[in-house]
Design goal:
411 residues; Amino acid/polyamine transporter I; Amino_acid_transport_2
Amino acid sequence: MTERAESRSGPSLIGGASIIASVCVGAGMLGLPSSGAGAWTTWSSLALVLTMVVMTLSGWMLLEAFKHFGLRASFNTVTKSLLGSRVNAFSNLTVYFVGGILLYAYITSSGLILQSMTGIDSKLASVVFVLLSSLVVWHSTRAVDRLSVVLITFMLVSFVLGVSGLAVRIDPAILFDTANADGQYAPYAMAMLPVALTSFGYHHSVASMRAYYGEESRAQNAILGGTLVALMFYLVWLFSIFGNLPRAHFGPVVAQGGDVDVLLAALGFAINSERVATTISAFSTAAILSSFVGVGLGTFDYMADLLGFDNDRKGRSKTWAITFIPPLLLSLFFPFGFVLAIGYAGAAAAVWACIVPALLARKSRTLKGGRRGFMAPGGQLGIALVLIFGGLTILFHFMGLAGWLPEPVLL
């Protein structure tokens, strides 16, 4: 019996969708309010829906390219074979950079949140967070699946409790910024795209999902389920935040790097409810943990494939070290703003989560048998859409760094 047939039964779509959603939700939930403060409700929502569609499609394009390879093949193997060593080398740099900087952002934010909740020094809290959380990734994909389901369930409960407290206080005038009748919103959406792209940056986990299910179609459904769940969370979250905290109040939050603890402090003050603020803090902690283990799993599997480490205890320990120690050390010695880190991740992620998947799908269709079996929908138009979106996201990021886009600090 083949490896593909042996893997065909077992894992549920709920588990896979939970992994995809959990990878997405941490970055998005915690970075989007600050990055979307300029675009505000309508334009932020449009940007999120567009990003979700493109990023789901690009993940399916990866699955299409992967169908020519064994189930243990990862991004490195596929890209090198189809696009060549030079493209693969550059892609490898961006993949590791994105995985590392996301882990770095989660580690830094976890320390700050745990410090505000417990009084423990933030650096010590970050070390404890990494040591405990990364053990789940070291153990197995199934362990991440089980933890992701638990965390998504906890996040859903705490989200409902916290957001219900926010939802009953939503002020339509604040939500739609009616006091600023002449306000400009659309230009800010361009600066938001790198963070929005990162918010759907589950692509580290595509190879893991395919290997987990043993074939592409169920992995496709898990990806779609996960991105839809993430989009639902994002829209409800943004409406709840933007309906309570006035647009002009985001200036100080963004000025301090958009760190999660600063946003939570501003939100707690705005709603004047200790119970809601505590619940939102618990939700944020779970969101960071779920994204940490999800991104950690994808980066872990990628590095194991790239470096050829075995899947035994010794091999997994070496993969664990190269995956988690560098971002931990950077977090301890060189911390900086959460939104800034996510923005850099988004620009780099556009390479391997948009441009490279589109190129892989185009190459895949030229191979013998490339138009048989699983294919991402959309044809050449879909490939063009993903390429253009990725290119614009990179362009907007560097335009923002150069000061050519409006800053999301509201006066």
